[in-house]
Amino acid sequence: MQITIRGHHLSITPAIEESIKTKFSQMTKHLDQVNSMQVKLSKDHQIDKPSRKGSSNHIAEAIIRLPGIEFFAHATADDMYTSIKILAEKLKRQIDRYREIHLQQHALVL
C-alpha cells in the first residue's frame, strides 16, 4: 500500500509520519485491495484571531482508494496528533461498515 503524506503550512516530522503509518496500517491490514492512501495535514493560521485552546486549527484529511470505492474523512483538533487520531477513528468506522456490507452481500450470494 502506498501512503502519501503532504503538509500544508507545516512540516511533516518523522514522529507524525510514524504515527500516521502505524494507525493506518493497522486499520487496513485486513483489506488486500487498497490501491493508495493520501493524507493531507494542514494548520490554519488566521492573522486576525490569536491561536488559543479550543481553536481547532490543526486539520487532517485522508482519502483511501479501493477498486470501485473511495473513503474520505476530515478531522480538526487543537493539536495534530489528536486530529490524526480522530481521522483514523472516522476512517475505521467507514471501513468496518464497508466490510460488514460486503460480507453480507457475499453471504446472500452463497
From TrEMBL:
InterPro entries: HPF/YfiA_ribosome-assoc, RHF-like, RHF/RaiA. Pfam families: Ribosomal_S30AE. Belongs to the HPF/YfiA ribosome-associated protein family. Short HPF subfamily. Associates exclusively with 100S ribosomes, which are dimers of 70S ribosomes. PANTHER family: 30S RIBOSOMAL PROTEIN. It comes from Acinetobacter pecorum. It comes from the Bacteria. This is Ribosome hibernation promoting factor.
